[in-house]
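Entry type: protein chain
Record version: 2
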Amino acid sequence: MYRKTVTDNGIRVISEEIGHVRSVSIGVWVDCGSRNEAPANNGAAHFIEHMLFKGTGKRSAFDIASEIDSVGGVLNAATGKELTSFYVKIPDYHLPLAIDLLADLLSHSLFDPLEMEKEKAVVFQEIHMVEDTPDDFIHDIFGRIFWHGHPLGFPVLGTEESVTGFQRNTLMDFFKGRYRSDRIVLTAAGNLKHEELVRLVTQSFGSLERSAGEKDGGVPVTTSKIGLMEKDLEQVHIIIGSLAHPFSSPARYAGFIMNAVLGGSMSSRLFQEIREKRGLAYSIHSYLVSYRDAGMFGIYVGTGDDKVRDVIEIIFNELNRLKTDVFTDKELLSAKEQMKGNFLLSMESTDNRMTRLAKNEIYFGRHLPPEETVAGIEAVSGEEIRQLAGEIFNADKISLAALGKVSDHVITKDMMRF
């Protein structure tokens, strides 16, 4: 059963009671990510996430880790473009421990300068790990050229230069301005009672104050671009992407199904055409990322440097096909069943239910019953998908980034044919 309460200091507490399990998944979701940063403090949100695990007034870094480990629980965190989340999964009878620990991290972390310097070295290694993984690094390259100076294009980890410059006072200013009660959504799913959850949150998070209303960098504007980075690799890694709809758009269901048919699975058009039929790539897929006010539909492929032109030509042929041909009944039915199946199976996890509670609140401002999601998938027509493809895939909106031995090839806009 879905329940929501707003505490006196503005924290939205949302729960779903699932009485047949013995666990509780809890997430603290903060309205803060890399899109809240500037070039000089890029990586601040991610660095703060790390520092909140480095010690509080009453817990050392070891205490934080061992306290959850000792009861068989899981503790983790993640920073994204728009949100930072802190996650605990514990046996139901340890709910008070989990809430107290999460509140301690967000309210009483020390930000010790010596720990900051050690953690900078850790983040440098994380940055290097991404740069050494080309199928990850290409996403940072594409983001920079596609969002063109907007904070959505900043790497979540920041850069070595920006992280090196972090000082305790400026980092604390960023933290205090954004880790505020009215920017927090706390969600929980599992064997719990909502009233008890609210009582614990009110007791433990009551010292947090409301924010002064800091805003992000505004709505992004994109244009068509090509970005190439030369690197001595065995493959050329490519992303082709175009501006898409925001998270809460009514067109999201059509976008999900279009993605499933184009490149979202092993049976998709791109996988079958590029890998199975022609053997031009090992990895090829499409994906859809959405934010509050924008989105991006992307296609990733890694291929041999002598196959670049062929692969790009096939991708654009398939994009043009989306714009001109309505899906067959078989494709549409199969994609809908895939989407419904994935969604319904995900609902068996308390982790996924907790996450869904948070994102529905943050992006829609309300609870979306599972039946509404299934009905939205069912209602999509082939013509709706064709119209969406015509809107998204056009020469003014699409961009391309490539990483590898790109100087041996001429990758130009004439290859991006609509």
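Comment: The mean pLDDT is 95.
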